[in-house]
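Exercise 7. Given the encoded structure of a 126-residue chain, write a plausible sequence.
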């Protein structure tokens, strides 16, 4: 049985052509001071949960600006809590959607809950 993956990301590229992931989008709202005190507290708590729940790959894994993290669908304990971020982004008119793939690209990192992959059209140097 093939592993399936899900990535929550922006539906539009940023000025650098990247499709930012759901955590980066929410973190940007916080960094820009766009969250209410209540939302900031909930965002901080949600981030703390994810920081404790699984390993963050070393920054060198993201040497390619096109590297993207994908959850394994088996990581239900992580995926089930994404709704907070989706709701937060929706309320701030930041488009974000779930994208599913059996083969997200050249895998440069893998652990029990995620992979980091470079999409094939980017991994050839284009």
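Solution.
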């Amino acid at each position: 049985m093939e592993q399936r993956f899900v990535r929550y990301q922006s539906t539009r590229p940023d000025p650098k052509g990247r499709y930012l992931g759901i955590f980066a989008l929410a973190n940007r709202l916080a960094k820009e001071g766009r969250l209410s005190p209540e939302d900031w507290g909930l965002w901080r708590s949600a981030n703390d949960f994810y920081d404790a729940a699984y390993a963050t790959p070393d920054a060198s894994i993201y040497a390619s600006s096109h590297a993207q993290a994908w959850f394994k669908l088996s990581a239900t304990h992580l995926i089930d809590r994404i709704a907070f971020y989706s709701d937060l982004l929706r309320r701030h008119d930041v488009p974000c959607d779930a994208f599913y793939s059996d083969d997200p690209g050249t895998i440069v990192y893998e652990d029990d809950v995620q992979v980091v992959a470079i999409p094939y059209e980017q991994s050839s140097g284009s």
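Remark. The helical segments are 22-31, 37-53, 76-79, 83-91, 120-123. Students should compare their own answers with the one above.
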